[in-house]
Structure to design on (576 residues):
């Protein structure tokens, strides 16, 4: 992306992000935006746990799905938004601590965008554990 | 399920449900528990929306995944819990108003339980709209 | 579907089916065509087995995916075909004997059609065993 | 893998591969076997096409699922085999020419192995096109 375009894309994503109350509720923030690649992070909040105290699968899903959706948003015309058509998540290990989701575009397209995401738990002593992989489809929708 | 067993199963589910802070955060409640079939409901809360004001996909996922997981819990030994191995969601229409998730067991098993769920939006004028279908795998884990 | 339209839809499906060499190779035939619902069958052929002698997952997939795709075809304009965008299969038990796949439309649409399928093994002594469930997305494509 | 172990693993895979008549039927061969990573190839055979002449989704599935399954087989005890629990495929572009599937293990485990695969079409003029991505779960089964 050209520097100018990149700033516009990032603005669109920050604007959309700000309007998703779900992202604020789970305490998510944007780490980075590149063409076809977006990274988000969120803590394992008190209010979003499963019965054993780990991050609820839905929070891991929320973060991975959003990172993938915003990655798709970097690849489509500026007047469009994206919606999730379908998403598959495989949970690899319990989510805890600081969660980081890296979304990426596997295949762009005018009609559909195929995406993937990895979610990691950053460990206190350094290093990170692979928490989940997601694979899905986004559809551009004109929101005007 | 025998009446006595049924009460025990329902207690296990209400107990597990109470320990999932995610369920309280989204305002979810248990509608019904039958053998292999559990129904949950939640409003489309202010804090759980996507950028257009509809229920965030992650809330629809949370409700469907939990209904499916609790349906699996009705079919396994009392000392075990279940965790989501993987879950696929197809979103059919925007979620709004009162969401209702019906989880069911497709195939029980000692090692794995295959599950499905439907999520509906109950409409103000009566009737309901199909919001999502989920299909996935739960694994029994001994939590002692 | 009106009787006339129904005949046309069935002809389109039989025509498309005949052009799919994969269907002939696995010995598949059409059992029934209704609006939004198509049933196919195929034997567990010698050449399509996995290492234990059961039907290979790919044959179960082929039959379920095709039944779902043809179910979608009954719901779209006559000049279009459908292609599989994505498909998820959960295998419930080994496939053997006569396989029967029932595809159905969960949600029609101009841009995408969400589908599901069940695959059964018909048992020698009567009755049937649930072999697989599929859930996926078809996209109408204009083939002219 | 130690050199000796590696030869044993490769033998197990070649032995299992030879017993899968599906692999012979589609003309598949093993390209390479590494720890947690297996590559297979097959032509787009006459008998395995969809209605437009491209490789049928089920052949792309067969190759990707098998590459992923054999990748899992490199990571489990020698007396076990693996079976597909579930598999999700996203089709990115039409399959034609020589198909190559690269399977890999995302997360090993005693009870389940999470896998992924990419399927490519090798182009006549060099280069390759991304045909499909798969993400799924394998289960070790003792076949004695």
């Amino acid at each position: 992306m050209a520097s100018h375009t990149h700033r516009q894309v990032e603005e669109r994503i920050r604007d959309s992000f700000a309007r998703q109350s779900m992202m604020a509720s789970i305490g998510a923030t944007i780490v980075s935006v590149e063409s076809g690649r977006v990274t988000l992070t969120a803590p394992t909040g008190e209010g979003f746990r499963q019965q054993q105290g780990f991050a609820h699968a839905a929070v891991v899903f929320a973060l991975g799905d959003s990172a993938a959706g915003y990655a798709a948003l970097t690849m489509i015309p500026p007047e469009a938004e994206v919606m999730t058509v379908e998403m598959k998540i495989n949970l690899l290990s319990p989510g805890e601590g600081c969660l980081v989701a890296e979304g990426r575009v596997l295949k762009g397209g005018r009609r559909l965008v195929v995406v993937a995401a990895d979610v990691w738990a950053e460990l206190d002593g350094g290093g990170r554990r692979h928490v989940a992989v997601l694979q899905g489809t986004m559809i551009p929708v004109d929101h005007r």
Remarks:
- The CA atoms of residues 28 and 42 of chain D lie 4 Å apart.
